[in-house]
Amino acid sequence: MKNSNLNRIFGYIEGYYGNLLDWRSRKRIIKKMEQIDMNFYFYAPKEDVLHRLNWRKNYTKLWRKKFKSFCSFANSHGIDIIAGVSPGLDFNFSSITDKPKHSLSFDLDKLINKFNQLIDDGANHIALLLDDIPENFNDYFSKNEEGAIHAGLSNLISKKLNRSIFLVPRIYADELRKENVTYLKNLSKNLNKETQIFYCGEYIVNNKFEIKSKSINKKNENNKVVFWDNFYANDYCPKRLILGPWMINKEARKVMLNLTGMLETDLFLLEVASKCKKSKNKIESWKKVLKKNNIPEEFLTLYNFFEKPNLSSDKKVKDIKFDAEIFDKLDKLLWEWKTPLSREWYPFLLSLKQDLQILNDLLTSKRILKTQTNPIAKKILKINGV
């Protein structure tokens, strides 16, 4: 295996809600990553209960055997594995001292033990995740500053494991700073200089990488920030699917993509990101990937509905023009296009067709009742006076 190159990080994050890959699927992603010159896979699935919800419990012997095989496979293909643990939901932060009292060290010992098991089984790097946890730190640890304590935990893990680590902080985007305005400053002030921070930029979902936080920018200048890219993620909007060109700017020197958990779709999106990353004409590069994956030309006529997510900075819904022919094109995609990728996209294409029918008053009340969730059906039919 080639040596880890922490100055160049480009890869895949298994860090979404709602889907959990199997080991065969993960290996297919590794093969794709090798083909397109990616080098890091971040194992941090929210749906792995022993990664997050029940993080204190050890993985089974069977899981560890499969994880070890996966790490070995990845390394043989030139891919580093970052393995994460997410203890922040209920971690006892009172245990963060160099010499914790025995009665307070249980959680820390459990966490270190879990990281050591992941390392023993082949993980090249480990990551501490403190994202998506309640904003209630002061309710339990009011005598301490949250950012400083999170830095302290990260530093202590690094010291006990005798290695630098990755950190996903609780405030992982500028737009979250209002939850704790001193968090990032205190985190950066106290954090080990070698620790790599995952950060989403100005917003949780972006189409470019910009940072307003001065403390994170300083880390970025020292090349210690990895852009956690949620552009294609849809776990927060599962009725939508984002498939457009990857428009990331060059300022993101290190970037990893958190995708969908749908295998064929993620393989497609990784190829899109790789081609667009190297290209000046990102749209043309994206079209070439469409053609390579045998996606019918009809998709190009309606791709604006799948082009990009709505961002926090957007002020209104994008106006997308279409004509009556769109239904014929959707029907061709729905009923004549038959591939593993089409099967993953089917529910999104059908939902788009029904939404367009509702918008144009082409769906009967009975069909609305049949096809829509109860709250949406109730709202639509009420608006229509039914």
What is the secondary structure topology, with strand pairs?
Blueprint lengths: L9 E5 L8 H13 L4 E4 L17 H16 L3 E6 L20 H15 L4 E5 L7 H4 L5 H16 L4 E3 L14 H8 L5 E4 L14 H8 L3 E5 L25 E4 L4 H16 L3 H11 L33 H10 L4 H20 L5 H7 L2 H10 L3
Parallel strand pairs: 1-2, 1-8, 2-3, 3-4, 4-5, 5-6, 6-7, 7-8
CATH architecture of the largest domain: Alpha-Beta Barrel
Order of helical and strand elements:
EHEHEHEHHEHEHEEHHHHHH
How many independent structural domains?
A: 2
Strand content: 5-15%
Please identify which CATH superfamily of the largest domain we are dealing with: Glycosidases
| Rg over alpha carbons | 23 Å
Shape: globular
What's the CATH class of the largest domain, please?
Alpha Beta
Q: In CATH terms, what is the fold-level topology of the largest domain? A: TIM Barrel
Number of beta-strand segments: 8
Biggest sheet architecture: 8 strands, parallel, barrel
Average pLDDT: 92
Structural class: alpha/beta
Helix content: 25-40%
Strand sequence of the main sheet, in spatial order?
A: 1-2-3-4-5-6-7-8
Put simply, the count of helices is 13
Q: Give the termini distance in whole angstroms.
A: 65 Å
Poorly predicted parts: none
